[in-house]
Write a structure and sequence with these properties.
Layout (H helix, E strand, L loop, with lengths): L2 H10 L5 E3 L7 H10 L5 E5 L6 H10 L5 E5 L30 E3 L10 H4 L8 E3 L8 H10 L5 E3 L8 H10 L5 E3 L8 H10 L6 E3 L20 H5 L3 H11 L7 E3 L13 H13 L7
Parallel strand pairs: 1-2, 2-3, 3-4, 4-5, 5-6, 6-7, 7-8, 8-9
Helix pairs in contact: 1-2, 2-3, 5-6, 6-7, 7-9
Length: about 290
């Protein structure tokens, strides 16, 4: 489907509720027609429509006010997020324009998205899932502002947002009291202490934590370390600390998925196999099952 075809659809199918146009070679010319004609859209899925810019995306987010799900995956020319005319998130007039009803917002791979985008998300009082994985320009400033403006998020995906540090983890732990799933995979500036604080502070809500390929986190437990609780702080290990904080809260801890694949410092790839097994055995004793 080309621009011409999408324009024809938009002008003749005004009652569309769901539209999937991923991987189509469309431009702003046809994308503008979505905002102008498809005012009843509730779900819009756009992936790898790399030619689109804020010129058309802003019109969609302003005019398509019934949207509850919006995917803009890989819209690499988009630099900011505009959500219409709503200025006061505590009172939103039924006449206000903008997609403030969003429940799911997927911005995966929007490489040029800037930190200031978090400020506009305060109007998204229904937002439960936000995906900003591989948005490489984002920093702690984005996450800290997001945790303040949109603390009611349940699912937050920060995979490969490699500029974030412990400051982001602490902001989430201290402000997002309903957080259920988090993805910090490939975030190599995060340290064990902030993750332990997160597991402690949000032990009643956090059910899924992913830190895949965070090589700075070492889950191996050297022989005898279970007798030296502070050792993990000194050598960067996190395995025993994870075990301790989960045991601390017992049945009140709701963690059910912990992805620590490839969490082993390069200097310890040759560590004795039983040092890997100690962490696995410890997690098994807490009713976790190893799955790869």
């Amino acid at each position: 489907i080309s621009d011409e075809g999408l324009i024809a659809v938009c002008r003749s199918c005004h009652k569309l509720r769901v539209l999937e146009i991923s991987n189509l070679p469309i431009t702003d010319e046809s994308s503008l027609e979505i905002g102008q004609n498809l005012k009843k859209l509730e779900a819009l899925y756009m992936r790898d429509n790399y030619q689109l810019t804020n010129r058309s995306i802003d019109l969609i987010t302003e005019k398509c006010s019934k949207l509850t799900q919006l995917t803009l995956w890989g819209c690499i020319r988009m630099s900011h997020l505009s959500l219409g005319s709503v200025n006061n998130p505590t009172f939103i007039s039924p006449l206000a324009s903008g997609c403030y009803k969003l429940v799911l917002l997927n911005l995966w791979g929007c490489h040029n998205l800037v930190d200031e985008s978090a400020a506009t998300m305060g109007v998204l009082q229904n937002l439960r899932s936000l995906i900003v994985s591989e948005c490489h320009r984002l920093t702690d400033a984005f996450v800290i502002n997001l945790a303040s403006k949109v603390p009611h998020i349940h699912h937050l995906y920060l995979r490969y947002v490699r500029r974030i540090t412990d400051a982001s983890v602490e902001a989430i732990a201290n402000n997002m009291h309903q957080i259920s799933s988090l993805d910090f995979s490939f975030c190599t500036k995060i340290t064990p202490s902030s993750l332990v604080h997160l597991l402690d502070a949000r032990h009643q809500t956090l059910s899924e934590l992913r830190v895949f390929s965070c090589h700075q986190l070492d889950t191996t437990i050297p022989r005898g370390e279970h007798h030296l609780r502070g050792q993990a702080h000194r050598d960067g290990g996190v395995g025993q600390l994870f075990l301790d904080v989960i045991r601390l809260h017992g049945k009140e801890h709701c963690l059910s998925v912990l992805d620590v694949r490839e969490c082993k410092s390069q200097s310890r790839w040759d560590a004795p196999r039983d040092e890997d097994r100690q962490f696995i055995t410890g997690m098994t004793s807490l009713n976790f099952q190893q799955k790869i």
